[in-house]
Amino acid sequence: MSVTAAEPDVLAALLPALRPWLVTQRWFAGGSPLDELTPLCAGVVRDGPPALVHTVLRARHTDGTERLYQLLLGLRPRPAPSPAAIARVAAGPWQGWTLYDAVDDPALLGVLLRVLAAGGADGGLRVERTSALPLPVGLVPRALSAEQSNTTVAYGDRLLLKLYRRPEPGPHAEIDTLRALTDRGCARTPRLHGALGTGAPGGQGLVLGLVEDFLPAEGDGWQGAVRHAADCIRGSCDPVPATGGFTAQARALGHAVAEVHTALAEAFPKALVGPREVAADAARMRRRLAEAIEEVPALARHRDALGALYEDYAAMAARGCPQLVQRTHGDLHLGQTLRTADGWRVIDFEGQPATPAAERARPQSALRDVASMLRSFDYAARTALAEAHDAVGGEGPAPRLRRTRRARAWAARNRRAFCDGYRDAGGADPYGRPLPLRAFEADKAVYEAVYEARHRPALLPVPLAAVHRLARPR
């Protein structure tokens, strides 16, 4: 195995094939057409065959925007199995070889782990260990398919490697958060074993990924919630849909989130903010609403009501009610939780990918995480309801109305159970602060409306219904 910096002409020979492939990937950010692709850093991790090349490309778009993309590329003399194949290399030292996405090749993923265990590679890839324990090699790798903006590889049932497909300069909120939680021995989050990046350890280069514990789980919280909601909507859960179901798990999840918030408050600075800072937060929410209306005109009818809600939120601080802010998860929902043999775990502290890196670590109210989770319970109920409606053809309105009422009851019951568990574990009672909770939930629903309009138009009614509910006078 060799670890050498790649010659520019080596990458140049691959770029023509990478350009049309890159724009089809789910983690490609989109925007205006690509104007230019240039390697920012690159390294031949293994000469092959098969060869493994790591690179970060700078993509310049015709509108002047620039983005970075991290790639792991495999090359074989013989054709690679579809859909991993990208193209046949036309020139250079691998002329005639097949170029493919290396995350679909277990052999090369095993090579990558051995390189990381040895400290990293030249040409831009290095690892900064956060644990004194050696990384185990020889584990069977498999790429996971759940994430949209990153690539995650499980090694046996021991390790998880997350590669940030759109890397950014450090520091990085997820790595800083997991490092602090690992140091504090937080039992509700995975242990961090190392951070991948460019440049010297401790420097301010690009953050490329992390290595953490793999958490064997029954499934994520989203899968379990939708399954339980579907049972209650169909009337097959026991006890009857008005009670029981998922509530015990929702309460336990609230308990786990409160534990994580407590650990974060102990590990990072926290502060009380007054009228000026809260007014600035409300102004950001109004700005996001105005921008959202440009993309989702259906939100316009709620402009005044939501604007008044945000003003009331700001006025609360002006009346002498300061707000506690701290480090939070930043993108908390049921899909960011795992149900393991010894309870709930919270994962993926990267924050919303669309949020600039500098903003993700900004202290904010822990109620924002709570509001985001409440929105997720609403989504789970609506998803199960849609599946139930689709499964039944030609029927009158009465059965549909009955299922709709059960879905609403399921969401309300589990939202309350989550908040009760959060309160019982030492978190401030979310329902004791209804105004900011409602404002944060509305802000999240506006964000969801834009996301659904862009990516899943069929689901746009879900956040629009939430906006309609939250905009009504109380």
Structure description:
Residues 1-8 and 238-243 have low confidence and may be disordered. The chain is 42% helix and 21% strand. The chain starts with a strand and ends with a helix. It folds into two domains: 4-213, no CATH class; 221-471, Alpha-Beta Complex (Aminoglycoside 3'-phosphotransferase, Chain: A, domain 2). The longest helix has 28 residues, at 397-424. It contains twelve helices and 16 strands. The protein has a six-stranded antiparallel β-sheet with strand order 1-2-3-4-6-5. A six-stranded antiparallel β-sheet has the order 7-11-12-10-9-8. The protein has helices at residues 8-22, 106-117, 173-183, 221-234, 247-267, 275-295, 303-318, 357-360, 367-391, 397-424, 434-455, 461-471; strands at 4-5, 34-46, 51-61, 66-76, 85-88, 98-101, 126-129, 141-144, 150-155, 159-169, 192-197, 206-213, 271-273, 323-325, 337-340, 343-346. It is an alpha+beta fold and 474 residues long. It is globular and about 70 Å long. Helix 4 packs across helix 9 and helix 6 packs parallel to helix 11.
Mean pLDDT: 88
Annotation field: number of helices: 12
CATH homologous superfamily heading of the largest domain: Aminoglycoside phosphotransferase (APH), C-terminal lobe
- The order of strands across the largest sheet is 1-2-3-4-6-5
Reported by name, the CATH topology of the largest domain is Aminoglycoside 3'-phosphotransferase, Chain: A, domain 2
Shape: globular
From the helix content, strand content and strand pairing, which structural class follows? alpha+beta
**End-to-end CA span:** 67 Å
Strand content: 15-25%
Radius of gyration: 24 Å
Count of spatially separate domains:
2
The share of residues in helices is: 40-55%
